[in-house]
Design goal:
36% helix; 230 residues
Length: 230
Amino acid sequence: MAFDLSTLPHVGGLTVGILGGTGDQGRGLAYRFARAGQRVLVGSRSAERGAAAAAGIAALDGARGQVSGGANGDAALGADVVIVAVPWEGHAETVASLRHPLAGKIVVDCVNPLGFDAKGPYALRVPEGSAAEQTESLLPESRVCAAFHHVSASLLAEPTIERIELDVLVLGDDRDAVAVVMALAGQIEGMRGIHAGRLRNAGQVEALTANLIAINRRYKAHSGLRITYL
């Protein structure tokens, strides 16, 4: 099947929740979706920190979608699509605690399980195979996808950058959920969402982030991925 953006669903009316929305990646994604006009719920372990982060995002140039914040549970309960952007160290605990408010919802895991030592970044081994598969095991009633792994937090958060020219690899077993996530990625100027296979392949996509970090350190860049001839 040829790549055809016109076949993707309309997602402009969806509310996007960000678990861990006070971290660099979560905050950056929240800002980009707010620039796209989406309603955004910023979640945090602390409701006060979530609210403060939301106020800061809403005040940035170009943010036109409604942005509010609170605890992670508030973001999980109030959103249509929820992005998991929490630190790997607290990933399992946070996801498991939100099983009930996330039931029936599209959950997008963008967490990269990485370690760092004197030689640089490296992928950590995850018993379930990947962070996304761990989320799937903890949220059996949710529609789990993996996406947004290779997007520079620095680029996301910079108001002077209008377009972010890269492709987002979207993985999942629920084709309708994958299509929604692809369409959401396309809401961000310059991005495309690309269906990159089933969730069982998320581990290699997460691990590739270590290579991108190494590239960016070597060349002092904020590189991403672009799938050519598509």
